[in-house]
Amino acid sequence: MPIVQAEPLARLITDILAGAGARADYAETVAEHLVAANLAGHDSHGVLRTPHYVASIDAGTLDPRAEPEIVSQTASMAQICGNWTFGQVIARQATELAIDMAQAQGIGLVSTYHEGHTGRLGTYVEMGAEAGLASMIWDGCIGGPRSVVVPLNGTGRKIGANPIAMGLPSGSHGALVLDFATSMSAAGKVMVAVAKDELLPDEWIVDADWQPTRDPNQLKAGGALRPMGSPSVGHKGYALGFMVGLFSLMASLPSSAQPPLEDRWGTIILMLDIARFGSPAAFRQQVDAVIDFVKSDPLEGEVLVPGETEARTRRERQSNGIPLPEATWQELSACAERFGISQ
Question: Which of 43, 162, 203, 213 has the greatest number of C-beta atoms within 10 Å?
Answer without folding.
Answer: 162
